[in-house]
Amino acid sequence: MREQPKQAPPPVQRLRVRYAKRGRLRFTSHRDFSRAFERAVFRARLPMAYSSGFNPHPRISYAGAAPTGSASEAEYLELALAEIVDPAAVHAALDAAMPDGLDVVEVVESPGSGLSDLLQASRWRIVLPVALEEVQTAVTAFLAAGEVPVERMTKKGLRSFDSRAAVLSLVVVPEEDGAALDLVLRHLEPAVRPDDVLTGLTSLHPLDLVGVPLLTRLAQGPLDPATGEIGDPLRTTK
Q1: pLDDT tens, 172-224?
Q2: Cβ–Cβ contacts within 10 Å for residue 201, how many?
Q3: Bridge-partner residues for 125, per DSSP?
Q4: What ranges make up the beta strands (E) of 55-186?
Q5: CA nearest neighbour of 171 among 211, 129, 126
Q6: Which of 58, 84, 95, 161 is least surrounded by Cβ atoms within 10 Å, i.e. has the fewest?
Q7: 3-state DSSP call for residue 25?
Q8: Which helix (H) or strand (E) holds 39?
Q9: Sign of the CA dihedral 226, 232, 233, 238?
């Protein structure tokens, strides 16, 4: 009879981490980031809690990762530790061990509840090298539409979905060499990404998008249905 693996003890502390993807590192895939982060955890000598089983691995929970190619100031994960550690010390050790461009912004003790459940909406800034008037025309048509279907290739094949349904707010602001979009997206299934919104915009009013637009997630967290504001998942418990 095959020997059963030993059960790992439960973690004694959970920490929530906010990190950023900046510059060229925005092209880092989620798989590449998770490898880099696990190496940083090892170099920082954190007392990680491990999963049970024949191949135990450090207990790191990733949530709401931005699409590859998008910059972000608001990415989140949760660490499970086998010892009580000062969050400020973890912040300093991890940030020193991570490559420039993958930056640890804040580390706090988890107040409880599932982190993924708190990531209900995101605020994005999308810089477009297109005339302000052209972008405004496309946005006006998009917001007036009851539905804006788009297609995207996913792991399950080509999918069609409504890019308008997830948009809570979409505002055009002047930019030095064109325009920028201030976009608030509700997290739905299937997920609507900011590039899906761009696809929807250009389907209603063609925009001459030269190169790859710079997409940056500015915030991510719980959505206040009354105000439309996005809260801080590092401190929200429900």
Answers
A1: 999 888 899 999 999 988 889 999 999 999 999 999 887 778 999 999 999 99
A2: 25
A3: 182, 216
A4: 60-63, 71-81, 102-109, 121-128, 149-154, 157-162, 167-175, 178-186
A5: 126
A6: 84
A7: helix
A8: helix 30-43
A9: negative
